[in-house]
Amino acid sequence: MEDEREDVQKKTFTKWINAQFSKFGKQHIENLFSDLQDGRRLLDLLEGLTGQKLPKEKGSTRVHALNNVNKALCVLQKNNVDLVNIGSTDIVDGNHKLTLGLIWNIILHWQVKNVMKNIMAGLQQTNSEKILLSWVRQSTRNYPQVNVINFTTSWSDGLALNALIHSHRPDLFDWNSVVCQQSATQRLEHAFNIAKYQLGIEKLLDPEDVATTYPDKKSILMYVTSLFQVLPQQVSIEAIQEVEMLPRPSKVTREEHFQLHHQMHYSQQITVSLAQGYERTPSSPKPRFKSYAYTQAAYVTTSDPTRSPLPSQHLETPDDIGRSSMETEVTLDSYQTALEEVLSWLLSAEDTLQAQGEISNDVEEVKEQFHTHEGYMMDLTSHQGRVGNVLQLGSQLIGTGKLSEDEETEVQEQMNLLNSRWECLRVASMEKQSNLHKVLMDLQNQQLKELNDWLTKTEERTRKMEKEPLGPDIEDLKRQVQQHKVLQEDLEQEQVRVNSLTHMVVVVDESGGDQATAALEEQLKVLGDRWANICRWTEDRWVLLQDILLKWQRFTEEQCLFSAWLSEKEDALNKIHTTGFKDQSEMLSSLQKLAVLKTDLEKKKQTMDKLCSLNQDLLSTLKNTLVAQKMEAWLDNFAQRWDNLVQKLEKSSAQISQAVPTTQPSLTQTTVMETVTMVTTREQILVKHAQEELPPPPPQKKRQIIVDSEIRKRLDVDITELHSWITRSEAVLQSPEFAIYRKEGNFSDLKEKVNVGYALNFMYFPKFCCL
């Protein structure tokens, strides 16, 4: 397995170096390990990366190679590249592991950190891997088939790479064709080709190296960073926080996982799919809260106290030694060297356990302590073989019979001490693990109970809010909107607890693990459904409240404006004189004012229709009987005031008509009516053509009719008769008979009488003109 990973890294790192050499105009390398041994090609690489000219030794001896590599290491140190445990001899000797480590540190510095330094500074973050994972998850969150939680297994099927490219460049290919029609290898080949020919990224990986159970993390990181370099680089704080909430992988390699699986029970990832809560539609406002699915990390412990995850080491018997396959001769010096190394590590492990400190009361801190201790336990497991080897060496050394009695006693005491300290450390670490399990489960169960109680309380709260009718006036509605905002704020606060439960650490017994996990999954599903329902109800009600508030405000605004307009016109009509005119001009001024009012009424008639429409729209959404009654009362009041204004306008016109004989005997009723009509028509024309900016019509000229004395006498008689007829007509209108006509809605007789009077008027004065 280690050889496979080494081969992948060798191939990937070689491609990366050659991609850099192509940029610098340098010759490519063929073998990563042998071509870097003399240090020259390493200096060529650093020249291109640093932009500095680096002199090289021209000789071909080992000394020249060591000098070249040392120069390269000095350059790396000046650029703050990590070089722990890497020396010039390691590179010159062609040490595969350390050569790969050196190149990875170069890639990490110039390819990863250097590319991401600006965004890391802006976000005040120092972990480049976390930023990169946050960017990937933020970019692919709209792809349900993709869930990237690491830089290994999440990339095997090829969907993540395609989704990452498609999220930023959807114009390059059709996503559905990638999902439905291709295998993992084909999808990876597709992504690499798109990246190369459309984005200019070299094909650093081969599909078969990624389409495996456990791809190489460093190779994936290097390639994803190349994509990050050419694609938009937005990363939100929310995306970083989401990554921080992901379950942390245990600090153990895949090889160690397989080697130690028979000794230790490992963590299992159990994903429970739950209702996701409200999903915002394009027309709805941005939700201020969100719901999560719950992911449980179930750490299975054994129910048999004799089977511990960390087996103890005991001193082997001579029979055990005889059965051992060790054929190398053991010396006292080699035993002492091995013993000192193990004791040094054991002392460090004891200090590390002690430094973990007391278990916290905060659930998030306990989770952190749990994951830290899990890594610590993995470290103990990986080193327990070294303890056993030292004990075996000591037993074998004693069995040779070459030691003096004092030496043998000393070795025996050393072995007993080592075994005792190891056993104490093992027991203490197991006890710490057990205590962490208990405290963490207690805190998480408390969280579940608190969430359940909060959901019950909030469900009752929403039921009460649902039953309360909206309104009955706009101030009450505003109060209900504020009340709903408080509920939203409570949801945001509770979201913290929901986030904490997003990744639970569940400890179950091996004997009843399946049943306990199934029960917990069902409990979490119920809680998740209830949480999602509250989120949806809160969002839907918020949209409804905002819609009603907007409609109510529009209705109220139109209502106030129309009421003010009615008051203004009522006051204007009350100020118009209808009797006691001093001369003809005063009377005509009143007629003109009446005509203007008549025009305003005609134009404003649409406002009444608009108010009725707004009222119906609001009531259809509000569904409140009390509010409907209040608004109908308002509209009835407006209609009554409107009718009163129209009737008073007509009455004022009639009063002016009655005042004609007293003001100007020569001005007939027909003159008054024509004047009103003429003024009204003029006002309508002015209104109709105001936007066309036509010049005002010239003032009307007075036309005088020259008549002899005989005609004048006849005119006076006719005016007197006409005035008498008008008086009689008014008397008829005020009579009980007219009341009956009005009640029955039959005005045919009355219209006939009025038409006869007007016919007589026009018959006697067909050519009468006025101003």
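(the above was protein one; protein two follows)
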Amino acid sequence: MKRLLGMEMIEKGLLEEMGLELNLKPWATDGGTHFWEVPKTAFRSVYDDQPNAHKKFMEKLDACIRNHDKEIEKMCNFHHQGFVDAITELLKVRTDAEKLKVQVTDTNRRFQDAGKEVIVQTEDIIRCRIQQRNITTVIEKLQLCLPVLEMYSKLKEQMSAKRYYSALKTMEQLENVYFPRVSQYRFCQLMIENLPKLREDIKEISMSDLKDFLESIRKHSDKIGETAMKQAQQQKLFSVILQKQNNVKFGKTIYINDRILEERNEIVLKPVFEEEDENEEEVLTVQDLVDFSPVYRCLHIYSVLGDEETFENYYRKQRKKQARLVLQPQSNMHETVDGYRRYFTQIVGFFVVEDHILHVTQGLVTRAYTDELWNMALSKIIAVLRAHSGYGFPVNRLFDLLFEIRDQYNETLLKKWAGVFRDIFEEDNYSPIPIVNEEEYKTVISKFPFQDPDIEKQSFPKKLPMSQSVPHIYIQVKEFIYASLKFSESLHRSSTEVDDMLRKSTNLLLTRTLSSCLLNLIKKPHIGLTELVQIIINTTHLEQGCKYLEDFITNITNISQETVHTTRLYGLSTFKDARHAAEGEIYTKLNQKIDEFVQLADYDWTMSEPDGRASGYLMDLINFLRSIFQVFTHLPTNSNDHAAMSGKVAQTACMSACQHLSTSLMQMLLDSELKQISMGAVQQFNLDVIQCELFASSEPVPGFQGDTLQLAFIDLRQLLDLFMVWDWSTYLADYGQPASKYLRVNPNTALTLLEKMKDTSKKNNIFAQFRKNDRDKQKLIETVVKQLRSLVNGMSQHT
């Protein structure tokens, strides 16, 4: 109850009991009781307006107070029993709380006592764990150091066993692999500091072995040369024996009654074979006479040490000094034949060793270096012969040497012309030769014997089917014949022999050098499809030019081509092989381009509905193929023969491309990494195959009969039709029949694709068990899968 005196708040109910009707404003609330703001004039009216108003007001106020006291007393009586019960419960709980306190205190004490032993054991465990960790660390460090120590021990053993090259390799492994792992240890630093000294020791030891080797071959060069000359003589003798054997057999066949010839052959051959048998066990090779291992070892050691140039310079310098000593004749050399023999065997032995080093090492001795030594030797030999020799010695072997030099000269020419041909191919633009006027036409005809009546009738400007490389190559072949003839003329041989030499040399140029250059050109990455077609056309014209080259050689030697023993030029096989290689490269490059497009395929194999249009990558691929085949079929050949040739190449390339595309698409469907395929994805894939079939039916290359090109996609078409129509009953019923609608569909292929679709159906139809149509479809798929498996198993057992 709020105080009234001195305050402007009063309960509204009290004022109403006193009969005061005032305009009150709510001021505050206290629980459910409202207090109102009373103007000061209201209290003033209590005292002023009515008689005994103050007394009445106080009486009313006392009555109100008594009423409130009664209500308070009722409320206290109502809640008193609950208060008493709560106090009683608290008194009961106090005893239990004291017992609980005692128990908690006792439990805490016992836990503390028990924990002391645990603490001691825990500390022991911690110490053991620290020791175990330290032991593990030591083991790890030792395991890290042991391989280093083992490799260093291996290095010491290799040094003791004089396996210096292996020791260098071991040093490299130590420096690159093992030392970085243990570089923080002092013993490793000592090892690292010791390696340079070991390398220097190896260099000194290997150089000492090389010096011993050089001294040894200097002493034994005459023995080496003598052995090499015997071997050369035996090889030549063996060739003569084979030739005589052939003559004997020929003689027995033609002159069967001529006993004198037969006996003469037997007399000639018998001593030859006996001499061969006697000398068979005495044949020694250069490797038998000389141990080249010091050279190989020293070369390898200096190569590993990165000082190969120093070794090469030293070796060449020392060998040049030895060459000068070998070429210096003895004062009495000219007095006996043995003096000349010893002089020349030393020279031969020197060059036999250098030739062996040239072929078994890379870079130690170069061809230029040996040529330099040979030129020096020739100059010295000529000077010695002029100073010490007389006349009257036989020169047959000298001519044999000249023939061998001729063969070497031809090999040099072949290497030179290989570079010439490569330059011609590099400069060619691989497009038909444009002819503006008669003068240009005569210029080209003067370089290459081109004849085509259809082109001759055309007006200027016009184009010749071959490119610029054809006349240039033809001219260079004639230049090669001139160069080969220049050497042969000095041998004073008959026209027949010269003719045979020229034809054989030209055949080597065509079949080996030019053929190799063509094959290398075809394999170059920058040669495109159009260039390959032009190369095919070029080889045809070069092949036709071979008969004019034969006439050219005939005019030089005056030997008729009708002669029985005249060698023919092998241009037909040479350029035929090049054409086949170019055609194969066309098909390979085209298939590679198809693979690049197919790799761009990005199918959503779980799509529910197709896009309604073919994939972008496939349309780009088809547009590319159209442009390529259009280039093939519109080449400016100006000749029916070349048009047929380019058309044939285009047809084969088109068929190969369609078959390859069909195979790639089939492999995409059957890819083992592809686990699920939806029907929407199959429908989208079908749209792409339809575009492939439309491309095939549009006749991108003329000349195909009927639907030959479309048959490239027949396997895909029948497979997709089977899945699009879902005609499994027909497939299973007609399987194996020649007239089956799905004859090209392999059961294994169909099973693989169907299982992928079955998995997708199970995944996408989570509630399929609640829908009858989905349940029926799933059962059908499972039934078909079982039947296909039975077919596949039956085929396997039959096989």
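Reviewer note on protein two: The two ends are 112 Å apart (CA to CA).
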